[in-house]
Each structure stands twice: as structure tokens, then as C-alpha cells.
Amino acid sequence: MQERGNLIRSDLAQELRHRLPELSRAFDPLFDDLAVEGSDGIGRKTEAPWVRLYSKAMSPTPREGFYVVIHFAADGSACFFTIGCGSTVWSGGDLRPVSDAQLTAKTSWARSVVERRWQTLAPFTDTISLGARASLPRTFEKATVLARRVPVESVDASDLDGLLFAAAERLSAIYLAQLDQRDVAPADQDARDLEAIVRPLHRRTRAQGIGLTASERKAVELRAMLLAIQFLQSEGFTCDDKSAVEPFDILARRDGQALKIEVKGTTSELCDSILMTRNEIELHRQEKGATGLVIVSRIKLDRNGAAPSASGGVVEAQMQWDIDQWMLESIAFKVHRPT
């Protein structure tokens, strides 16, 4: 066990550090802080040692962000070239696994980024199985986005450098998607912007995304309005844009029925929450049955021109939306001085 620990922490990690100049070519130039670390346990020897390649800004610790990670089967029968994500948090002085639902959401999103970019997950199409008895290595398995198994007898005949480079390319694509906040729900994007106003001295990390400028946000909103109107018209509604004067965006009419529609546009691919004002909330509660919500997600931004432009987008419509079936959470308050 001690010899294996030295090989993982020192020898293999150092071999990967020697390859950093070549591996950096797989990454966007934004990620100029690549590093390598290895581990065979925390306080005790683990059944499943690992070595990871990562950006310091995007993954400050193994518990945060995504990284290329080489895992080793507990019985030494194989190694796995993978992309994984943080799967534990510190709690009660020890590492605890995060929920399966959280890991599934993170890994599914990252796989979708890779599949859209390369039209396939190949060559990382294997299922990781470390054969460990402890709970932590099993959590590593659940936190794996992509994996390629290399049996020990095939190591000499395999293009390990090629696998490592391919994994690094896919990690770079995931990092770029994170910078565009494509893994952050619209409400959380807006909450970060709100926090920047309330706490202007609080430093925002690169891993939290670069956010949208005012012109980029406007391009996204206009694209969302366009697609929402096109969708409603395809459903037989006539549409009036009320976004500038009312606490809703579109007044949609069909067969004597009028619906007040809220439109939310986002570059994100995760849309489980949105941010709404108090006036918007009150409208949807008071006029329940006569309102609707249209979320336009996965809008693509082009920043190459003189002004940003938006394209694409996936429309999700909640007609006769019942806001009380959703959960409301306060994230900021207006605090008055006593009179």
C-alpha cells in the first residue's frame, strides 16, 4: 500500500506534470492555471487511488468543479481515464458524499455538453467499476461523467497520451460551458448578479461564471420574447408585447380567452428555478388560471460582432400556470429604517 501511494502521489503525478505543456494545447487559453495532484487516501489508505488534472480556478479542490481523473481499480486490474466532478463535502470533520440527485444532475449536464460538441461520447463510453467496498470510491463512480477502461494487460498497447489529451479537450469544453453559466439555473444566475449589487466587495470566482453584460442580457431577453411570440402564434394566439409597461411580458388572446404571459430567457441548460419580482408573483397568484409562463432555455450568444447576438433556444410553456405548485424562496429583502 505504501509503495502504491508513492507511485500515485509522486511518480505518476510528476509524469503528468511533465506533460502539462502538451496537455495545455487541449484547453482554451483562458485556462492557463493547470495543475496535477494525486491521492491514495485522506488519513488512511483508500481502495481507489486517483490522480487528477484540473484548472485551479475552476476546481480549487477535489470537492469542487470538474476535472480529468485517472482512477485505479481496487484489485489493480484496470485503470480508468475519466472526467469526474466533486462528490463530497466536509461535514462533521469528515468527508460526506453529496446526494445522488445532485451528482446525476451534474454528470448528465456535463455529458450533454460533450455530446453536443463531438456528437458522441466516444471513446469514453465505458462504465466505471472500481470494485471497492468502501462508500467513498462508490461515490467516485457516481460522480463520473465519462470513462474509458484500460485493462492492465492492455496498458502497453494503448494510446494513453491520446486518451489523456482527448479527456482534456472535453474538460475544456465543460469549463467553457460553465463560464457561460450553462450549468446554472436562471434564478441562480440572477441571484449571483443580485449578490454582486448587495455585496460589491465579495469576490466572484471564475468557476461561478463570467455572467452576462447588459447588452448580452438584452440580446437574450429579445431572443426569448421572439421565440415566445412565435410559439404562442403557432398555438393560435395573437400577441401584444407588454414588457415595458406591465408586470408581465405578453398579452396573448385566443377565442375570447386572454392570458398574461411571463417570459424568461436564459443561456442555461438547467431550468428548475427562475427569479421573479414581488409584483410578478402577486399577479400570478391573483389571476391564477389566466396567466402563463414561457421559459426559453439554451439560448446561444455570439460575442464576436460589434454587438452580441442571440440564436437558438428551447421553448417550455406552462399555460394556465399555477405558481403555488412551485416553491418560493426569499433571497433578498428591502430593509427600512424605523420611522
From TrEMBL:
Top-rank taxon, per record: Bacteria
Stretches assigned to the Protein NO VEIN C-terminal domain: 221-298
Pfam families, A to Z: MrcB_N, NOV_C
Domain Type IV methyl-directed restriction enzyme EcoKMcrB subunit DNA-binding: 11-156
Name of the featured protein: Uncharacterized protein
